[in-house]
Specification:
The complex is a heterodimer of chains A (426) and B (441). By secondary structure, chain A is mainly alpha-helical. Chain A contains 21 helices and three strands. A three-stranded antiparallel β-sheet of chain B has the order 1-3-2. The chains are: A mainly alpha (426), B mainly alpha (441).
Chain lengths: 426, 441
């Protein structure tokens, strides 16, 4: 009892400056065991502390109190409320001192929220948690995938999308990264932003890995379907930068999807639908049936797009025949939809039932277009700078230099081309 | 009585022709149904028999033609020593030509016996030459063996023996002799890769070749390219054949064939300038084209854009070309390519083309023409778009400026994506490396 009292007073006292905070941190680390053993510790003791000022101490106590096993529903909901309030009001500086603890606390929070089957409660707190734990917007934290998972469960895609708009350039844990990309891809699919979804899924599929893991496999299946929807082409071979393990094994595990892809390339709707029906049980098992249906409907769009390359005017009935639609009315609907989406430029003459395809009216002369080009140029310059910085930091990395030094004998650089100083050769 | 009638026919023709085989008044390869006798006189040796048998098996339901071909084949085989082919032909005739053309087992046995004796004699001679170690005799011995096997129809053994003479060749003439024999057997066997390699070997000869030999080699090489579907190279080789070839290569190819193969392959694969320079203005090749006036006409028609008559000639020649042993597999592809070239050439000079007039020019319906044009546009061989409402084809030239802008923006986005992916992958690798290094230390 007294040790807890002491602890609380020291927390209250030492939470002011950074020097005090490091001292406090040491005390807390030492006292953790005793805290856990203390069975009198109650949630009410937390009322003595202010989460925004005494975040570090609050964090430790909360962790001890809530990391216990299964709780009753009321207790769980009370705990959830407490943690949510803590997360929203805690001080980011203090939290970062004990980021591992914070992360595990949040993960526990997420589990409780999912147990309560109320993911919506957890979305906002976790969003702010991610922002607080992040050291820089370029770095992936362990909380990103959890936050995205909750957003998916709660179906608030917009919230999840706001996290995805950061560019992640540095990654610590591969598993976090895979999950982040996979969930991120799913959120983008939900928002119908297929370009970004494709990017994220592509990153998972081509990530370096020694053996195929389940996340990569699921991501590959979705990647195949999204490529069909977005770019209308499918190639069985993976990009060259994918790891050899992925290249060899991913395809064998996702045969129904590659079949759909190959059939799509042929361009015949009826065959594609037959293939889909044949494998519908597989698709349902993977929860991909909705995506597959979207892919099938995108085949119509792709075929109509191809027609614009060859024809200047075409009757609606001809379009319907060539694309295998039922009648001219459906063809009109499809073409109208595509014009509205901006995928084609055309004029429909309802009197004759003719469609006239136009060229892209974009002349690239407006000031908006210049702004767009300018921003793209700036972005490219920034990226190049990042790349050069990365290269420089790598060439100063002792581990890397050690490895090159060791392999010096393998590469005959010649006397006058010594990239690595002698002291690194072993 | 019957006999006289049957045999006097060809004999009379031979008399009126003056005994020569090239001065036929009527062109042999033309739109009319093939005159088998005249066709057969163009060739000699084994190829004559093979061609006749090919015609017999590919002439469709035309009984008279089939029987005619089989009869001539029978006569020709009996002049030789190939009993296997003899049995084959007799089976095919199946008694339909009467008593004279049935199985003559006595003849077979006597030929086989003679063959055995000859083989024994040749073997003895060869072994004696071998013990004497006279190179020239050994070479002649193997050569004789090769000839013997070739006459009997055992082509593989013939080829082996001809190739064995290589070790005993002392002069360039010997080497050329060996190459020509090897080429002949390879063509009969249908192994055209060998043909190419032996032609190369012969052409690498340091001495200049006689013009006739050079022409023969070019024919052989052209045939090889044709079989391998390399129509442009085949055309070039055939067009280079000098007219001195005449009939000297009858055991493989006739000058009419050189003209036909060369002309069609050139039409299917050359562009306009090459067609003019190498075919129309080619003085040497003109002599060959005189032998097949229909091919000459159709090439001129194509060049002067008279597509309807060009395609008409092609159509009429088709039936006979399908009976040719070397061209049979390629007729459809070549025709297809020629037709496509005609369509492309037709649309090239115009900004807009009325599809109904074009359909008339090509003797096809407007909807059929639309489908063909669609295929060509998809392949990017015609830069145009079809106005299906008014049935007009409009040429479409891409706007370079817009296309450039579009490409630039796209490239910028791709660079962005790729570099970010790369940095992520590098990060993952670095992390893995650190993790592994951490574990080792």
């Amino acid at each position: 009892m007294s040790s807890t009292e002491n602890l609380i007073t020291s927390i209250q006292g030492l939470s002011a400056s950074s020097g005090d905070l490091s001292a406090l941190h040491r005390i807390l680390k030492g006292a953790e065991e005793t805290l856990r053993a203390d069975s009198d510790l109650q949630l009410s003791t937390l009322d003595q502390l202010d989460p925004s000022k005494h975040s570090l101490g609050y964090l430790y106590l909360l962790d001890v109190l809530t990391c216990g096993g299964p709780m009753s529903k009321e207790k769980a909901s009370e705990v959830v409320l407490l943690i949510a309030r803590f997360i929203t009001s805690c001080d980011a500086e203090q939290i970062r001192l004990a980021s591992d603890k914070f992360v595990s606390l949040c993960k526990g929070f997420k589990d409780r929220v999912l147990e309560l089957e109320d993911p919506l409660r957890g979305v906002a707190p976790l969003l702010s948690a991610v922002r607080k734990v992040q050291v820089s917007t370029k770095r992936l934290t362990a909380l990103h995938p959890d936050c995205l998972q909750l957003c998916l469960q709660a179906k608030c895609y917009k919230a999840g999308f706001s996290i995805l708009s950061d560019d992640i350039l540095e990654v610590d844990q591969p598993r976090d990264f895979y999950l982040y990309c996979y969930y991120g891809g799913m959120i983008c699919i939900g928002q119908k932003k297929f370009q970004k979804a494709l990017e994220l899924l592509y990153n998972v599929v081509t990530a370096p890995m020694h053996s195929v893991n389940a996340i990569a496999l699921e991501a590959y299946k979705k990647y195949v379907l999204v490529t069909l929807i977005h770019s209308g082409q499918f190639s069985v071979s993976l990009p060259k930068c994918a790891s050899t393990a992925a290249q060899r094994h991913l395809k064998t595990w996702s045969i129904p999807y590659t079949e759909v892809g190959n059939c799509y390339n042929e361009g015949k709707i009826s065959e594609l639908q037959a293939v889909v029906v044949a494998h519908s049980s597989d698709f349902e098992k993977d929860n991909n049936l909705g995506l597959v249906k979207q892919a099938v409907s995108s085949l119509y769009k792709r075929n109509i797009l191809r027609l614009t390359q060859k024809y200047l005017t075409l009757s609606l009935q001809d379009i319907a025949n060539m694309v295998q639609l039922a009648n001219a009315k459906e063809a009109e609907m499809h073409v109208l939809q595509m014009i509205q989406d901006g995928q084609i430029h055309a004029l429909i003459n309802q009197k004759d039932g003719m469609v006239r395809f136009l060229e892209d009216p974009e002349q690239y002369k407006t000031s908006e277009m210049i702004e767009v080009m300018d921003s793209v140029i700036q972005r490219t310059i920034m990226l190049s700078k990042n790349l050069i910085a990365m290269d420089e930091s790598l060439s100063c990395d002792p581990l890397y230099l050690g490895k090159v030094g060791r392999e010096r004998q393998r590469y005959d650089f010649g006397e006058d081309f010594d990239t690595v100083p002698q002291k690194f050769s072993m | 009585m019957e006999r006289d009638e049957e045999t006097s026919g060809p004999m009379m023709e031979m008399c009126t022709n003056g005994g020569e085989e090239t001065s036929n008044r009527r062109p042999i390869i033309s739109g009319e149904p093939l005159d088998i006798e005249a066709y057969a006189t163009l060739y000699k040796g084994r190829t004559k028999i093979m061609r006749l048998l090919f015609i017999a098996s590919h002439c469709g339901g035309n009984q008279t033609m089939q029987l005619e071909a089989l009869r001539m084949a029978y006569d020709e085989i009996k002049k030789g020593e190939n009993t296997q082919l003899f049995r084959d032909v007799v089976n095919r005739i199946n008694g339909r030509l009467g008593d004279k053309y049935k199985m003559d087992s006595a003849w077979c046995e006597s030929v086989d016996r003679r063959a055995e004796q000859k083989k024994g004699r040749l073997e003895n001679e060869l072994s004696s030459y071998r013990t004497n170690l006279i190179k020239e005799s050994i070479r002649m011995g193997h050569n004789d063996f090769g000839d013997f096997y070739y006459a009997c129809g055992l082509l593989n053994d013939a080829f082996k023996n001809y190739v064995r003479t290589r070790d005993y060749c002392t002069t360039a003439k010997h080497i050329i002799h060996m190459c020509m024999n090897a080429i002949l057997v390879s063509i009969e066997m249908g192994q055209f890769t060998h043909v190419s390699s032996y032609v190369n070997k012969a052409e690498q000869n340091p001495e200049t070749l006689e013009p006739i030999v050079a022409a023969k080699l070019r024919c052989a090489s052209g045939l090889a390219h044709l079989e391998l579907k390399k129509y442009k190279l085949a055309a070039r080789k055939f067009l280079d054949v000098s007219p001195e070839l005449g009939n000297s290569y009858n055991e493989v190819i006739a000058p009419q064939d050189v003209a036909t193969y060369g002309g069609l392959c050139a039409l299917a694969s050359f562009d306009r300038s090459e067609l003019k320079a190498k075919v129309i203005d080619n003085i040497n090749f003109r002599d060959f084209l005189e032998l097949v006036p229909e091919v000459r006409e159709l090439i001129n028609d194509f060049y002067s854009s008279r597509y309807a008559s060009c395609l008409e000639y092609l159509g009429s020649l088709r039936a006979n070309l399908l009976l040719d042993i070397h061209l049979h597999d390629h007729v459809d592809t070549l025709y297809d390519q020629i037709r496509k070239k005609a369509l492309i050439q037709y649309t090239l000079p115009f900004v807009s083309v009325d599809l109904s007039r074009m359909a008339d020019a090509f003797k096809t319906s407007v909807s059929g023409l639309e489908k063909e044009l669609e295929a060509l546009i998809t392949d990017n061989q015609i830069q145009a778009r079809i106005d299906s409402h008014n049935k007009i084809l409009y040429a479409r030239h891409a706007d370079q400026r817009n296309a450039t802008f579009q490409k630039v923006l796209q490239m910028g986005n791709e660079f962005d994506r790729d570099v970010r992916s790369m940095m992520l992958r590098a990060n993952l690798l670095k992390h893995e490396y650190h993790a592994r290094a951490g574990r080792n230390h």
